[in-house]
Amino acid sequence: MYRRTLTYTCLLHLFILTLADDTLVKTPLGPIRGLELTDEETGKTVYEFRGIRFAKAPTGERRFRKPEPVDPWAEEYDGTEYGYACPQMNFEEVDDGSSNQSEDCLFLNVYVPHSVTKGEKLSVMVWIHGGGLTLGNGFFYDGTRLAVDGNVIVVTINYRLGLLGFLGIHHSAARGNYGLWDQIAALQWVQHNIASFRGDPNSVTIFGESAGAWCVSFLTLIPSNKGLFTRAIAQSGVAARYLSPGKREVQRFIQHVSELTNCSLDNKNDFIDCLRKTDVAVLLQAADQMQFVRENTLFVESLFGPIVDGELFPDNPMKLLEDQSSPQSQFLSSLDFVAGTVSQEGSLLYMSIMPDLQEHYAFDAMVAIPAKFICGAIISPFVDYYYKGDEKIKNAICSFYTSDGSEDDQSNRAADFYGDMLFNPWTRNMLDYHARPGEGKTYQYQVSKLSPYPTGYPYMPPPSWFKGAGHFDEAIGLFRSNNRKAIFNGTISDDYKQYSRTMIAYWTSFAKTGVPCAGKTSLPWLEYDTKRRMFMEFDDEIYLRQNWKSAMNKFWSGEIPPVPIDEDLKITHDEL
Ligand SMILES: *[C@@H]1O[C@H](CO)[C@@H](O)[C@H](O)[C@H]1NC(C)=O
Ligand SMILES: *[C@@H]1O[C@H](CO)[C@@H](O)[C@H](O)[C@H]1NC(C)=O
Ligand SMILES: *[C@@H]1O[C@H](CO)[C@@H](O)[C@H](O)[C@H]1NC(C)=O
C-alpha cells in the first residue's frame, strides 16, 4: 500500500512537472515556446515569449491595408527570439536594435512574472513605443522589472511606422492609420490569447511614451476600442491638432512621393497600387521628413499621424473632443487615465538643431540658444503655418519665451518653447477634457528625477545650461535593464533603483486597480480636477503639487488663440 502510494505520488509529481513547463504555452492559436529567465536585480523568475506574430506580414497586396489576423498553427511556435523591427531609417546614435528590420514586422513580446501556470489572473500592461511614428521597436523595452516588481504581465508591440504605417491621402485608396490598426490588432490578440499566459483580458492598460503616448491618446478617442482596454497612461504626449496631417500636407507630400517613385498621381488607386510595388528602400527615401524642413528653420510639418479616415476618425478628433456628448468624448471619459510629462520636454531641442542651422544663426547649442534663433527658426514658421503669419501672435510668443536673465536662462526658455509647442499645453487640455464628469479617474504626474541616462546619452549629453529631466527620462525608471543594448547598459545607483521601484509600484497599481498607490504607507496620489489641479511630482522626493506650469498654461490658453483645427476633411473616391 505504502509503495503504491509512493509510486502514485511520484507519477503525479512527474505529471505535474510536465504540466508545469511554464515555457510552453498553449494559446487558442497554437503552442508557443518561450524562455525562462532570471531578473538580475531580484533573482526572481520571468517567462518571456518573444517575437510572437500577431498579424500576417503586411507586405505586397497587404501594404497600406489593415492588418489581417494570423492563421492558427499546430507545431510549436519558436518564441525565443525577437522579431524584426519595422522598416525605418537607421541612425548610429539610436542603437536600439532597429537595424534588424523587415517589412514583415508585426510581432509582440510577452513577459510573465514568477509562473505561467499558478495563481490568480494578472493585469496586463501593453507598451506602445515612441520614436516620432517613424523610429523604434517594442523589443528594445525589457518588461522584466515591471512584470517582476509589479506582478503584471507586460506586452511590448511593434507597429508599422512612417509612410508604411501612416500614409493616408483622404481617399479610399489609402485611408491611413495602418500603424494604429496594428496596435488595435495587437490589443485584439491580447483579448483572445493573454488568458493562456495567466493574463486577465478584462484588466488591460495601454501605456506609451512620446509617439507611443500620442497613439495611446488617439486609441482612447476611438469608441470601437471599447473592451480592448480600460486604462491608459500617456507619458509625454497626447492627441494634438498638429499631429493629424491636413489637406495641404498630404497634397505636398504625395506630389513629392510621386516624383521620387515615378508613380503617377492621375488615378489615386493606381498610384497606391504602384507604391505597393515600390521597393521599401525607395519609400523610406521618399518619406525622409528632413526634406520637408524649410530652409533655415527647424519647423517640421506633420506628415505621418492619425488622420481623418472615415473609420477610426469620422472627423478631426480634436473637434470631436470639444463636444462632451460625442461618442469619442464618452469613450475617453469611461477610461481611467494618467497623463504626465518630464520637467523639461524641450531637451529634444538641443539634439535637433543641425550644425548648418547653428552656423546660420551664429551660435553653439552646447553653449547657449539665443532668443533670435527660436523666434526666427521656429516661432516664425510655426505662426506662419498655423496662424497665417499673424504678427501679433508672433511677437507675443517670442516675447513670452525671451528671458531678461542670463544666457543659461534664455537657453532654458528656448527649450521651454520647444516642449510647450510639442507637449505641455496639449497635455493640460487633455487632462481637462478627461476630468469632465464621467466614470474614469484622472491623474497627472511630472517626472523631475534625473535618470542615469539623460536624453542623448551617450552621444550627446545635455549641455551645461540644461535644467531638469529630459524627454524619455521617465521611461528609464520603468524599463531600465542592465543587460540590453547601449543606452540601458550601465550600472544603476541604489538610489535610482529605489526610486524606480516606487515608480513601478505606482504605475502597476494603477494598472491593477485604477488607483496609483505604492503601498499602504505611500503618499496618496490625488485625482486631477479642474479646480485644484493636483499632480504627483516624481523627483528625489515624491510629493503632491498643484497647478502645474501655471504661467505656461495661462499663456497658451488665454493670451494666444488655440491652434486652429483643420477644415472638414472628407474621404473621396475615384470614379471607376
Ligand atoms: C534579426 O532578427 C531575426 C528575426 O528574429 C533573428 O533571427 C536574427 O538573429 C536577428 N539578427 C540579429 C543580428 O540580431
Ligand atoms: C524614375 O525615373 C527616373 C527617370 O527615368 C529614373 O532616373 C529613376 O531611377 C526612376 N526612379 C525609380 C524609383 O524608379
Ligand atoms: C554602453 O554602451 C555605450 C555605447 O555603445 C558604450 O560606450 C559603453 O561602454 C557601454 N557601457 C557598458 C558598461 O557596457
UniProtKB/TrEMBL annotation:
Domain Carboxylesterase type B: 22-556
KW Signal (keyword) present: yes
Pfam families: COesterase
GO molecular function: hydrolase activity
EC annotation from Swiss-Prot or TrEMBL: 3.1.1.-
InterPro entries: AB_hydrolase_fold, CarbesteraseB, Carboxylesterase_B_AS, Carboxylesterase_B_CS, Neuroligin/BSAL
Signal peptide per UniProt: 1-20
Listed SUPFAM superfamilies: alpha/beta-Hydrolases (SSF53474)
Tagged with keyword Signal: yes
Keywords: Hydrolase, Signal
Family: Belongs to the type-B carboxylesterase/lipase family.
Protein name: Carboxylic ester hydrolase
